[in-house]
């Protein structure tokens, strides 16, 4: 059957009220998904005084008023838990809760011996704003976003822990051969990684515990929508990590790589494999699917998707932001997919119809992955390569430094409208002898330079090098 969740059959994500960690005395960390009707003190007292029921996968369930608590035990009487609405969990629900409690970064061991770093939160916030933050056309950082950002940073600084940030990005190269040089990371990814490394290093100078920067690839979330095989995503990620290891200093440990399959890592997957075979998700292009990855895409949509019917209604409303987002995705995907052989055999009408379906699916997948990241990284500073208003919970960043790179063929206002900032995986990088900066542009620019320059692809520099 084709997956189609309704409001009455809400995904598990929508049932979650909060994620927390605790011992037998205190709530150690808590991230509310909704406004709770009671305080953390009340929650801990109810958890301690209520007898739990040991159920499947080593999970303990309790009924707390009009909520359910699902907990997993850690060492030294510590527990991580998930508070939900009252519902009758299926085996899949329990397995998914286990995955989130096992893989989610919910409990943080406080450094009781750390020194007090005066003004660390303000300094890190100021550094972020002055360096990698992207300023959108309708930026709300000064009035709202800065306060949200500081709260996220302070969760870590008041514990004396490295600040942790998460960025869904670095999916794979575009399948459009007129945009990128190849399917592997090149100078664009190198420049982006070096920029992140510089920010991580600068944070360590003002806050010695430092910064952990998680790059959470969304390649497997969208690969079938953008005409990229699952194994090509894996190859891109492998080379990306190799590039990082090559360019970083030996003692630098600031960047960590995750992906969809890492988020759903489980030793109990067999318990839900039969159920996953009963559901399907929409594929509008012919790509090679990895069975494990396809199962995890099903888990993502089934557990974390927003309402399908509501999205359909939203994009029919001529004034709804979702309509503009859908149009933006359609425009972008029309350009990204028009080079593939399959499309060239279609009529223009069929192409536009498929692109509309792909754009719809990408919005669904983007929402679902954002929801998953929120569950797995509940306390993290959440960053994005899309243009946001910067009022939280996400904050836009520019991976390519404007002091080092310039763009050709990208109009900023249009990019803002499509919620997309030029990235290394949709472009090629050019180094011209009479230009001080690297040029970020589509690959087709190379043919335009031949008349006035000499040169071409440099395997050593992993970009196009031209001399006047």
From TrEMBL:
This is Dityrosine synthesis enzyme. The lineage of its organism: Eukaryota, Fungi, Dikarya, Ascomycota, Saccharomycotina. InterPro entries: Isocyanide_synthase_DIT1. It holds the Pfam family DIT1_PvcA. PANTHER family: SPORE WALL MATURATION PROTEIN DIT1.
């Amino acid at each position: 059957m084709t997956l189609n969740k309704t409001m009455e059959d809400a995904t598990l994500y929508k049932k979650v009220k909060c994620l927390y960690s605790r011992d037998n005395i205190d709530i150690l960390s808590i991230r509310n998904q909704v406004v709770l009707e009671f305080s953390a003190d009340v929650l801990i007292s109810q958890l301690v005084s209520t007898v739990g029921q040991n159920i499947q996968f080593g999970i303990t369930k309790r009924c707390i008023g009009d909520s359910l608590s699902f907990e997993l035990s850690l060492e030294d009487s510590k527990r991580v838990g998930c508070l939900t609405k009252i519902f009758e969990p299926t085996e899949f629900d329990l397995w998914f809760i286990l995955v989130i409690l096992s893989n989610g970064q919910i409990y943080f061991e406080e450094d009781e011996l750390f020194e007090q770093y005066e003004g660390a939160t303000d300094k890190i916030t100021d550094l972020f704003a002055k360096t990698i933050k992207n300023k959108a056309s309708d930026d709300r950082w000064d009035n709202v976003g800065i306060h949200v950002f500081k709260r996220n940073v302070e969760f870590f600084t008041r514990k004396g822990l490295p600040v942790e940030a998460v960025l869904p990005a670095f999916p794979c190269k575009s399948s459009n051969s007129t945009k990128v040089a190849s399917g592997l990371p090149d100078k664009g990814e190198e420049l982006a990684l070096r920029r992140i490394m510089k920010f991580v290093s600068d944070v360590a100078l003002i806050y010695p515990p430092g910064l952990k920067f998680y790059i959470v690839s969304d390649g497997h979330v969208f690969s079938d929508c953008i005409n990229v095989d699952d194994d090509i995503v894996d190859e891109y990620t492998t080379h990306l990590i190799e590039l990082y290891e090559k360019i970083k200093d030996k003692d630098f440990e600031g960047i960590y790589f995750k992906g969809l399959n890492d988020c759903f890592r489980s030793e109990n997957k067999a318990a839900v494999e039969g159920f996953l075979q009963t559901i399907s998700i929409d594929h509008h292009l012919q790509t090679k699917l990895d069975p494990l990855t396809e199962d995890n895409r099903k888990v993502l949509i089934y557990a974390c998707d927003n309402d399908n019917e509501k999205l359909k209604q939203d994009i029919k409303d001529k004034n709804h932001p979702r309509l503009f987002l859908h149009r933006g995705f359609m425009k972008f995907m029309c350009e990204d997919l028009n080079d593939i052989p399959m499309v060239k055999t279609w009529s223009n009408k069929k192409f536009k119809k498929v692109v509309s379906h792909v754009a719809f699916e990408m919005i669904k997948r983007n929402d679902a992955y954002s929801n998953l990241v929120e569950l797995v990284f509940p306390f993290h500073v959440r960053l994005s390569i899309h243009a946001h208003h910067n009022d939280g919970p996400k904050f836009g960043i520019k991976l390519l430094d404007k002091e080092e790179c310039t763009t050709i063929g990208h109009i900023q206002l249009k990019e803002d409208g499509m919620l997309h900032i030029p990235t290394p995986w949709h472009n090629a990088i050019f180094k011209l002898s009479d230009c001080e900066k690297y040029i970020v542009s589509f690959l087709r620019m190379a043919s335009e330079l031949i008349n006035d320059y000499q040169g071409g692809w440099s395997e050593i520099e992993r970009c196009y090098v031209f001399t006047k």
